[in-house]
């Protein structure tokens, strides 16, 4: 993941998503802080695909992403993961200063409630 080319780093993240091992999850977590928005987005998608409590917890990191679109993607991802930690991650986004993100969080929480 130390390659200078963001496209290479993005491809690495996508490949790692197929190997849900603890060390891989740590690498994906570091990708959530990559300088490239495309790499961070790939990491968000990878965690959504992998699922589980660890993914929901990791996605809480992405809620502080400077890119509004990625924070919004982060709010949508727990809907695919499900579970208590995923709902907690979405609840954090209700207070986002960007209305689009907080509205997306409210919609995702409503979907959780509808599934009950």
Structure description:
The protein has 116 residues and is an all-alpha fold. The protein has a single domain (6-115), classed as Alpha Horseshoe (Leucine-rich Repeat Variant). 74% of the residues lie in helices and 0% in strands. The protein contains seven helices and no strands. It has helices spanning 6-16, 22-31, 37-50, 53-62, 68-81, 84-93, 99-115. The longest helix has 17 residues, at 99-115.
Distance between the termini: 39 Å
Low-confidence stretches: none
Helical content (DSSP H or I, runs of 4+): over 70%
Query: Count of DSSP E strands?
Result: 0
Estimate what percentage of residues fall within beta strands: under 5%
Q: What name goes with the CATH superfamily?
A: Leucine-rich Repeat Variant
Oligomer: single chain
User: Quick check: average pLDDT?
Assistant: 88
Task: Summarize the entry for a quick read.
By secondary structure, the chain is mostly helical. It is built from seven helices and no strands. Helix 2 packs antiparallel against helix 3 (37-50) and helix 4 (53-62) packs antiparallel against helix 5.
